[in-house]
Amino acid sequence: MSASLTRSYFADAAPQAAIVYALYGVLLKRWNLPITGWQSTYMQALCALAVMFPAFLATPAPLRQVNAETWPLIVYAGALASIVLPFLWIRGVAQLGPNRCAIFMNLLPVLTAAAAIVMLGEPIRPFHVIGGGLALLGVACAQALPRPLKTTIGAR
């Protein structure tokens, strides 16, 4: 798959993924299913296993070796990213509500860039500062202005 085709695919899929994720948060709060966070996380893990196992089998054997280099990745993906983080997200949505949680999703790119700058030595570029500043400003405005601003268009 070429780099331009990959970029195009992800650019096309990103808005749909954001809509599905927002819908998930809203429906999670609205349905208020009588299951615990751990039960929900367990079901998500089983669904992920069912979806990802064929991809694992399709991966060439040399690329799916378990060794000292791959163990940290397996632990991170298998425990932290697949169990701990979804559980905490479900708890956060239950306690704060989907609207407040969705606002903080805008901080994900800011935190990712900050982690890359600190841990990988990524240089700070103007787009980091501008984009991060706009994201932080948006989150601050959403927190400070809980109701939509009244419009005066047509009220003359």
Write up this protein:
With 156 residues, the protein is mostly helical. Helices cover 74% and strands 0% of the residues. It contains six helices and no strands. The protein has helices spanning 3-31, 37-58, 71-96, 98-104, 108-120, 126-144. The N and C termini lie far apart (56 Å). 3% of the residues are buried.
Write the layout of secondary structure elements.
Layout (H helix, E strand, L loop, with lengths): L2 H29 L5 H22 L12 H26 L1 H7 L3 H13 L5 H19 L12
Helix pairs in contact: 1-4, 2-3, 3-4
Explain briefly what this protein structure is:
With 156 residues, this protein is mainly α.
Strand tally is 0
Could you report the average pLDDT, rounded to the nearest whole number? 79
- Helical fraction: over 70%
Count of helix runs: 6
Q: Determine the strand fraction and express it as a percent band.
A: under 5%
The Rg value, from CA coordinates, equals 20 Å
* Largest sheet descriptor: none
Low-confidence stretches: none
Shape descriptor reads globular
SSE order: HHHHHH
Structural class determined from secondary elements? mainly alpha
Give the CA-CA distance, first to last residue.
Answer: 56 Å
Which characteristics define this entry?
single chain; 156 residues; globular
